[in-house]
């Protein structure tokens, strides 16, 4: 059974204090790993797709990396507007190939 | 929200009553999904559609039914609402088949409370 575990559950940073969020996964044949951002009361907003180990993608202060067992979302010099819940999901090779989501990391960046 | 609207945005209902949630898209995407989001569980797939009148079950489909009579609309029905169906419901769309890289785009959500 495909599984996604995100850590930490919550993270509090000072503005400018860089850190990383972790997404560990087990999946039968990874077809894609997805990162989303979710603000309170809103739907998830798509950020990145990673397809294979070693791949990296960047968007502003965010950089996502992928290994065979986990993905990291690196946040460089965060700002208060980066505060949100970050969700990780995987798509495997079996069945409908649905997305399996983790429970997310709540990030709070203080000024 | 990628041209996706959901209605209603909030609803309070009583146990045993039928409830229908609507998802409307303007992207002409073929694939549509209904998820529920609960604390400690992450997003879980209820039902999905791969075309007009083509639907199938997800992992938490008991107590829910869906219909899709037009490309742009996907309806989720709770035939007889129960308190365990209190949740936030999200619709998502995808323009590529699930056998490829299934990037999904989400609507704003509907908060449903069943008393």
Topology:
The complex is a heterodimer of chains A (about 110) and B (about 120).
Chain A: E1 3-7, E2 10-14, E3 19-26, E4 32-38, E5 45-50, E6 56-59, E7 62-66, E8 70-75, E9 84-91, E10 99-101, E11 105-110
Chain B: E1 4-7, E2 10-13, E3 19-25, E4 31-38, E5 42-51, E6 54-57, E7 64-70, E8 73-78, E9 87-94, E10 105-106, E11 110-114
Parallel strand pairs in B: 2-11
Antiparallel strand pairs in B: 1-3, 3-8, 4-5, 4-9, 5-6, 7-8, 9-10, 9-11
Kindly list the characteristics that best describe this protein.
heterodimer, A: mainly beta, six-stranded mixed beta sheet, five-stranded antiparallel beta sheet, 0% helix, B: 115 residues, mainly beta, seven-stranded mixed beta sheet, 11 strands, 57% strand
Q: How is this structure best described in words?
A:
The complex is a heterodimer of chains A (111) and B (115). Chain A is an all-beta fold. Chain A contains no helices and 11 strands. In chain A, the strands form 2 sheets. In chain A, strands 2, 4, 5, 9, 10 and 11 form a 6-stranded mixed sheet that branches. The termini of chain A are far apart. In chain A, 39% of the residues are buried. The mean pLDDT of chain A is 94. Chain B starts with a strand and ends with a strand. With 115 residues, chain B is mostly beta strands. Chain B is globular, with a radius of gyration of 13 Å. In chain B, the strands form 2 sheets. In chain B, strands 2, 4, 5, 6, 9, 10 and 11 form a 7-stranded mixed sheet that branches. A 4-stranded antiparallel sheet of chain B has the order 1-3-8-7, with no helix packed on it. The mean pLDDT of chain B is 92. In chain B, a hairpin with a 2-residue loop joins strand 5 and strand 6 (54-57).
